[in-house]
Every structure is written in structure tokens, then in C-alpha cells.
Amino acid sequence: MAGLEVPTWDPQTAMLIGAILFEAIILYVGYGGLEKLVGPRLMELLVGGESGVSQ
To answer: Collapsing DSSP states into helix, strand and coil, what is residue 20?
Structure first.
């Protein structure tokens, strides 16, 4: 039957996919940490005030 075969993985392809996923996770965590460090200060500078919500 077409489409039911189990594909064989080339080890280089599997390593490439793993490296790309690892890089994506590192970037996600890194940018999240950077946003927590710099985000509040940047919003205060750009918007003014703590929350940035006008009352």
C-alpha cells in the first residue's frame, strides 16, 4: 500500500533535524530571558510609567 511504509532515516538527516530543533529551543529560551530582562525597562522608556496602560 502506498504511504504506509516506514521511512528509513539517514543519520546525517536526523542529526541536522536535531541540531535545528536544539537551536530553536536555545533561541526561544534566550529571547525569553532577554525579554524579561530588557522588556520592562524598554516599555518604561518608550511608553512611560510602570504598566503602560492609560487611565
So the answer is: helix
Cell of 51: 504598566
Q: Which cell is 35 given?
A: 525579554
Helices (H), 1-55: 11-47
Is 43 exposed, middle or buried, given 0-12, 13-18 or 19+ CB atoms closer than 10 A?
middle
Amino acid of residue 50: E
C-alpha cell at 31: 529571547
CA 37 to chain centre: 16
Write out the three cell numbers for 22: 536544539
Q: What is the pTM of this model?
A: 0.58
Between residues 22 and 47, which one has the greater pLDDT? 22
Question: 39: which 3 cell numbers?
Answer: 522588556
